[in-house]
TrEMBL record:
Residues 253-273 are annotated as: Disordered. Pfam families: ABC_tran. This is Phosphonate transport system ATP-binding protein. The keyword Secreted does not apply. GO terms for molecular function: ABC-type phosphonate transporter activity; ATP binding; ATP hydrolysis activity. PROSITE patterns: ABC_TRANSPORTER_1, ABC_TRANSPORTER_2. It comes from Albidovulum inexpectatum.
Length: 273
């Protein structure tokens, strides 16, 4: 489905963000990208749909090499790739429905998109998607009236409105609390399973990746240093990906977070009695 071959990226500043990355993602697989800050996770995701131009290598989506396409053909092929962002990238003053329909903009004529007159079947599908992400009752609300978790649900529905063959997901839960993060990851993984949709998810949170991803790829300094199932993420592997110091610091952070959550739960239970 997606095949990345020998992908490299060196920015104009001279920073090499990716070195010879090769990766295949079959239909229906949800893959988590982990690695320390600056490892190249965002660059990899953005090179796939050429928001960042790769310096070398190929990105095959089916039998199309996205790297060699001219502008017009790239625009057409990008419809096949849905993107979900950390900060949702919604148009705040538009309604939830309008934001979801904006996922169809690549398909409708300029005039229709200018007047925002979408075909009835697009509107019907948008309602169905809002229902799927649990926001049917919020269709007419402005995006800026929603919570973070609800905004991300709109982001998911908008990406699906595109009818994509691949999802690229860049830190979808980084702005959300732990419980909402789990709900969003569960929704994403369920939707991918239902549709046989492959996804690459850039994810900071290792426990969350372990809980929800089928496959984990660890990047370090622009290279793949691990590729395997979540169960294989041992202390030794995580140290290889993050380095001793960073991994121990992250572990301490997670333990503190878990303790704080448990304490908050106990306090709530005590209040309820
Ligand atoms: N626009 C840019 N211009 C120059 N260098 C860049 C640019 N974007 C990223 N880099 C560099 O490329 C490397 C990889 O960055 P990237 O953002 O892809 O890493 P990341 O793993 O996503 O990090 P984080 O988890 O902190 O978001 C870093 O050294 C970074 O400084």
């Amino acid at each position: 489905m997606l095949r990345i071959e020998h992908l490299s990226k060196t920015y104009r500043t001279g920073d090499t963000a990716l070195s010879d990355v090769s990766l295949e993602v079959p239909k229906g697989q949800i893959l988590g990208l982990i690695g320390p800050s600056g490892a190249g996770k965002s660059t990899l995701i953005r090179c796939i749909n050429r928001l960042v131009e790769p310096s070398a290598g190929a990105v095959w989506l089916g039998d199309v090499n996205l790297v060699t396409l001219g502008k017009a053909e790239l625009r057409r092929q990008r419809r096949r790739i849905g993107m979900i962002f950390q900060e949702y990238a919604l148009v705040e003053r538009l309604t939830v429905m309008e934001n979801v329909l904006s996922g169809r903009l690549g398909y409708v004529s300029f005039w229709r998109s200018f007047t925002r007159r979408f075909p009835p079947q697009d509107i019907q599908r948008a309602f169905a998607l809002l229902d799927r992400v649990g926001l049917l009752d919020h269709a007419d609300k402005r995006a800026d009236a929603l919570s973070g978790g609800q905004r991300q649900r709109v982001g998911i529905a908008r990406a699906l409105a595109q009818d994509p063959e691949l999802l690229l997901v860049d830190e979808p839960t980084a702005s959300l609390d732990p419980k909402t993060s789990r709900q969003i990851m569960r929704l994403l993984t369920e939707i991918c399973a239902e549709r046989g949709l492959p996804a690459i998810v850039n994810i900071h949170d290792v426990p969350l990746a372990q809980q929800f991803m089928q496959r984990i790829v660890g990047l370090r300094a622009g290279r793949i240093v691990f590729d395997g199932p979540p169960e294989a993420l041992t202390h030794e592997v995580l140290t290889r990906i993050y380095g001793e110091e960073d991994w121990n610091a992250m572990k301490r952070g997670d333990e503190e977070q878990a303790r704080a959550e448990a304490e908050a739960r106990e306090r709530m239970e005590a209040l309820a009695q």
